[in-house]
Amino acid sequence: MDLLILGGPRFLGRHLVTAALAGGHRVALFNRGRTEPELFPEVEKLRGDRAGDLSALEGRTWDAVVDTSGFLPEVVRRGAERLRDQAGHYHFVSSVSVHADFSKPGMDEEAPVQRLTPEEHERLSTIDPSEPMKSPAFMELYGPLKTECEQVVRETFGERASISRPGLIVGPHDYMDRFPYWVSRVAEGGEVLAPGRPERPVQVIDARDLADWIVRLAEGGVPGTFTATGPDYPLTMEGLLDACRNAASSDARFTWVDEAFLVENQVGPWEELPMWVPETTSTSHLGILQMSVRRALDRGLRFRPLVETARDTLNWERARGPHEWRSGLTREKERALLEAWRQLARA
Ligand SMILES: NC(=O)c1ccc[n+]([C@@H]2O[C@H](COP(=O)([O-])OP(=O)(O)OC[C@H]3O[C@@H](n4cnc5c(N)ncnc54)[C@H](OP(=O)(O)O)[C@@H]3O)[C@@H](O)[C@H]2O)c1
After folding, report:
1. pLDDT value, residue 189
2. N or C: fewer beta carbons within 10 Å in the chain?
3. What are the Cα distances from residue 64, in Å, to 1, 56, 178, 205, 217?
4. CATH 1.25.10.10 fits 1-166, yes or no
5. One Pfam family name from the record (predicted)?
């Protein structure tokens, strides 16, 4: 198939290119050329800003489009309308963040989603369409904006549209540093602060498994909306950290720290301690790492062993060299918290 990716070789886009090439497909990438433009010399590069100039798409046809870079409904609408008669299938990468209420585990695709309120629509004028991530309003409205983008894609492509709603995407090239924090920290060894209950359920999806599956949806022109996270067995935080330890053959010892203590000590869930979602101090996000993936499994989503994801992420992280961390505790803060936790236990 001829596949157009509206996105780039940053993270998921990179794995989509690899999966599509491995499947024998011809690939074109449409982006501004800022992210590693020299990668994939065998792939056609179409240059443009999807919030502005789409002329590079003119006069071309594709069997399928995968859109990894859609965040604003009007920007997605311009691209989708332009491509309606030039492409067979349109796959939009959305997010589990579309959902309105994460307080219950086991949610599926039919659970209510957030929509933009009229006041929120007003705020969109403060977002630069070419650089949405730089706007605080965008970060706050990420979930409902993805819902609106999904709606645009469904309206434009109808039965020729598919939508994936990934949970936390992990694996090599994960620039958000959440899973890389855990693989690196555990590989360092010693006493590691682990949040909450060891049995707390968690979910992640390797970007390569997601990419393979999206390419297969596009190949088959499979319509529908799918929650896309994993694995297909109940994974716990302890299981995830064990996979990191096995991948690194490290001597890490986990000290499980009560979540009330973490909250009292102003440790932020999610970014500061990745994959930690409070269960008792707040239940508002209890279900975000406990989504039902039945529908995607029925449509062929499969997962590699987590230890493989951890090993490959660690190898990538080591090759990457020193960098600013976007997520995770500093070692100083981790040490101070562990010391305070021990003192509390002695008291
Ligand atoms: N990471 C997660 O855990 C997670 C979870 C749920 C959902 N998601 C979704 O997954 C998707 C994948 O993100 P990714 O960063 O991995 O995708 P990617 O395709 O690897 O990278 C995004 C690419 O889009 C291009 N781009 C951005 N703005 C553009 C514009 N205005 N015009 C043209 N090209 C543009 C960028 O290249 P240039 O800068 O060169 O233009 C960049 O390389 C996103 O939609 C995200 O919301 C991610």
Report:
1. 98
2. C
3. 8, 16, 31, 23, 10
4. no
5. Epimerase
